[in-house]
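Consider the tokenized backbone below.
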């Protein structure tokens, strides 16, 4: 429980340091390169309106098939787009992608 509180506070502190208009369109992604990661370098990742809409739909807890129907996509296209978003953000699961977007107040 204490670790979750620290993570939440860290995310809030990070959001407070950035102007709101910057946070709405760009999600900082820590570089995977060991050298730049140690220096604290971040690569901005832009998520489209459609990507954010998809993440918001996933956040409601519906199945992939239901989300695809609501967004007028095939289930296969939806899964591919989710995988692409996860790859862009450097996360492993759609839930992690939703958490990234939620912490940055994008959804």
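A designed sequence for it:
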């Amino acid at each position: 429980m204490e670790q979750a509180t620290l993570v939440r506070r860290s995310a809030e502190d990070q959001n407070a340091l950035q102007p709101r208009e910057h946070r709405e369109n760009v999600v900082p992604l820590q570089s995977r390169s060991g050298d730049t990661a140690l220096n604290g370098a971040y690569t901005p990742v832009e998520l489209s309106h459609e990507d954010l809409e998809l993440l918001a739909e996933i956040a409601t807890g519906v199945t992939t098939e239901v989300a695809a129907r609501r967004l007028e996509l095939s289930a296969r296209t939806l899964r591919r787009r989710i995988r692409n978003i996860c790859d862009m953000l450097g996360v492993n699961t759609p839930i992690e992608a939703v958490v990234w977007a939620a912490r940055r107040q994008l959804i």
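The first helix runs from residue 2 to 17.
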